[in-house]
Amino acid sequence: SCTEKTCPGTETCCTTPQGEEGCCPYKEGVCCLDGIHCCPSGTVCDEDHRRCIQ
């Protein structure tokens, strides 16, 4: 699981499919269900097309 110390303050921590901690390059980013992709705050993951939508 992620802790506040895992990633810099400008990034968001996401748990990978392997259960490890990964960093998303967006502040207050949204982790996608696949655990690989992430989206900027205010958007949602489009899992089918692997993109972020408003």
Report on this structure:
Belongs to the granulin family. It comes from Locusta migratoria. One of its GO terms (cellular component) is extracellular region. The protein has 54 residues and is an all-beta fold. The protein has one domain (12-53). The protein contains no helices and six strands. Strands 1-2 form a two-stranded antiparallel ribbon. A two-stranded antiparallel sheet has the order 3-4. A two-stranded antiparallel ribbon has the order 5-6. It is flat, with a radius of gyration of 11 Å. It starts with 11 loop residues before the first strand and ends with a strand.
Cα Rg: 11 Å
The tally of strands reads: 6
Number of self-contained structural domains? 1
From the N-terminal CA to the C-terminal CA, the straight-line distance is 27 Å
Write a concise synopsis of the structure shown:
With 54 residues, the protein is mainly beta. It has strands at residues 12-15, 21-24, 30-31, 38-39, 44-46, 51-53. It contains no helices and 6 strands.
Task: List the main descriptive attributes of the protein structure presented here.
flat, disulfide bond, 6 strands, secreted, two-stranded antiparallel sheet, 54 residues, mainly beta
Tell me the layout of helices and strands:
Elements: E1 12-15, E2 21-24, E3 30-31, E4 38-39, E5 44-46, E6 51-53
InterPro entries: Granulin, Granulin_fam, Granulin_sf
Pfam families: Granulin
Family: Belongs to the granulin family.
